[in-house]
Amino acid sequence: MTINKLHKRIDQKSILEEISFEQEPGEILGLVGRNGAGKSTLLKSIASHYLLDGGQILIDQVSIDEDRRLRTQIFYLDEDHLFFKNLTLLQIGRFYQQAYPQFDENQMTTLLAQYRLPLKQNYRQLSKGMRGLFNIILAISSHARYILLDEPFDGLDVIIRKNVIRLLLDQVGEQQFSLLITSHNLAELEPLIDRTLILKDRTISHDYRLETLRQTARKLQLVLKNNEIPALVKEKGRLLNISGRVMVVYFPDYTDKIKQELSALDPVLCEALPITLEDVFEANLINEQDYQVFV
């Protein structure tokens, strides 16, 4: 799937601009950004729940507007506007069977039985966790090639969450469909995804593979002899945390020259720490006013 220069306005306000990225079959992408950045709007735009104000969505290099059948290759469930809350799980499945030509009712009923979700259970009677699990089963059974999930783990207890993650990973391996996932739980998202897309200032500001990123970036814990933040940190790094003389600094492009300049500061301690997805999020998206620095 190719997203090419996507634009979206809502109430005359620009929400998304020049959004471009590609997703390979079987690839799991994490979409992260601050609250209100437009993550849900992007998913709804890709799923054709919103009309675009510019750009294209292509599958196999064909626009989904030119061949509307391609829209059945994209699955997105908008929980804010569910129309089937009063239907049973079986009725919901049969509705989606009409919308998705490859929908596998046998797979759906098998998975529902496996996770003890009764076919005749009314959707609105399910707990939030059970709804989340059913939504994933519905998405998988659609056999769409691209599944868009907006905060799929939100509010799930640890056992259901593990079941959902296991189910997704098993089916990605078997069916080779692709996932685009938003989540505020970055620690949970990190081991699942192949790439991270950072949505900032209405566009995709960064497209990372953490393995590649770790080859060029460094996260260091520094202890200096005074309380001043060196110009090197301000100019070349991103300050993640500070407590007294102890700083945690992220350098997105760590070079031998930076290493030499740090050494010249004669730090009491200079220790490398593992880089996480949360570090990348903070380094790119947190502003100075978000910090309360106590010296």
Looking at this structure, what is the CATH superfamily of the largest domain?
P-loop containing nucleotide triphosphate hydrolases
Supply the number of helical segments: 10
Low-confidence sequence ranges = 290-295
Based on the coordinates given, report the CATH architecture of the largest domain.
3-Layer(aba) Sandwich
Give an overview in words.
- With 295 residues, this protein is an alpha/beta fold.
- It has two domains: 207 residues, P-loop containing nucleotide triphosphate hydrolases (Rossmann fold), CATH 3.40.50.300; 78 residues, Alpha-Beta Plaits.
- The protein is built from ten helices and 14 strands.
- The strands form three sheets. It has a six-stranded mixed sheet, sandwiched between helices. The chain has a four-stranded antiparallel sheet with strand order 2-1-4-5, with helices on one face. A four-stranded antiparallel sheet has the order 12-13-11-14.
- A hairpin with a 2-residue loop joins β1 and β2.
- α4 packs parallel to α5.
- The protein starts with a strand and ends in a 10-residue tail after the last helix.
- One of its GO terms (molecular function) is ATP binding.
- This is ABC transporter ATP-binding protein.
- It comes from Latilactobacillus sakei.
- Keywords: ATP-binding, Nucleotide-binding.
